[in-house]
């Protein structure tokens, strides 16, 4: 069974995280992706978490989002390289880039130039702030966008101040937004037979994921604040609590769940206590309620409470580390991580975050070495061995 984007050809100029994550999602679903890199390769190939992998130009995080791609190295400043791109774009379905606005236009490789060669081309430009507006040329970085978008203003604790997320959340959600936008344009093309320009802004993508907090202000005039680990429901039992050995996150938001929690903890006496008769009084006496709950949680380790409380009907989770959750029986049962054979042995990576009944996402081929497919791609375009050697000697490829 073919995958959803089988036969779709993507010319990928993206670097670092947001753009490569976007094209990787499409590659998992069958798209043929040519990753165009400068001759030195992108810096993300050599992040310093592991010297061994960095020296190979295959940093682990880079591999995670660059599988199912072919690597073509070009010096885009040279006319010969630009001519190669025009040949590739003429037969491509999608071009994706995340340079600052105007860079590709100055190279003669922007949407206007390439769409003239290929009117059905979908051209997606990812940037920090979009292609128009007063900040269009500002650099967009994940931390900067976390700070500007409002994410950090509502993340953290009032006592310690703003906190950024523990991973590059704005990069990733921008990449997923771009993948969805490209998918939408590809579907629209099936009944318009027209390509188009797709403008993806990191700041706007982040605000789109904050649609609830935005509406809280624009509709209700409610200002958000840093609330630590408390849920957006502001229920005092939907928060982080201490257990015997570590912490546990309670997600107890409904009255039924509250009753289940207190029963499972042996706190039946609180049902007749006027301080805890409803959510309003519980919030007024939150510190007292927390102390009662934590006194009981202190009797067992967090991992012991997790099955007990969940079985009782009180949603809860202990704090899982990455190295632990990937071995969780639920993750194992659904084959979430995919094993890929590489020159360095079998490696495991995340695939798509969803399952299809047929033709779902698979991580087929390892992330490419720098320029690994340059010769093969040029040969596909009709270049002879002599012409390829000439391009190599001229430092075009």
Spans of at least 5 consecutive residues with low confidence: none
Rg over CA atoms:
26 Å
Level of helix content? 25-40%
| pLDDT averaged residue by residue | 95
Structural class: alpha/beta
Number of beta strands: 13
First-last Cα distance? 36 Å
Which sheet architecture does the biggest sheet show?
Answer: 6 strands, parallel
| Sheet with the most strands: spatial strand order | 3-2-1-4-5-8
How large a portion of the residues is in β-strands, by DSSP E? Answer: 5-15%
Shape: elongated
Count up the helices.
18
Protein topology:
Elements: E1 9-12, H1 18-28, E2 32-37, H2 51-55, H3 60-64, E3 69-73, H4 79-90, E4 94-97, H5 103-106, H6 111-117, E5 122-127, H7 142-149, E6 156-157, E7 161-162, H8 169-192, E8 196-201, H9 202-209, H10 211-218, E9 240-242, E10 247-250, H11 255-264, H12 279-284, H13 286-297, H14 302-312, E11 316-318, H15 322-325, H16 329-333, E12 337-342, E13 345-350, H17 374-380, H18 385-393
Helix pairs in contact: 1-8, 7-9, 8-9
Structure characterization notes:
Helices cover 39% and strands 14% of the residues. The chain contains 18 helices and 13 strands. The strands form 4 sheets. Strands 3-2-1-4-5-8 form a 6-stranded parallel sheet, with helices on both faces. The longest helix has 24 residues, at 169-192. The protein is elongated, with a radius of gyration of 26 Å.
Keywords:
single chain; 397 residues; 18 helices; 13 strands; 39% helix
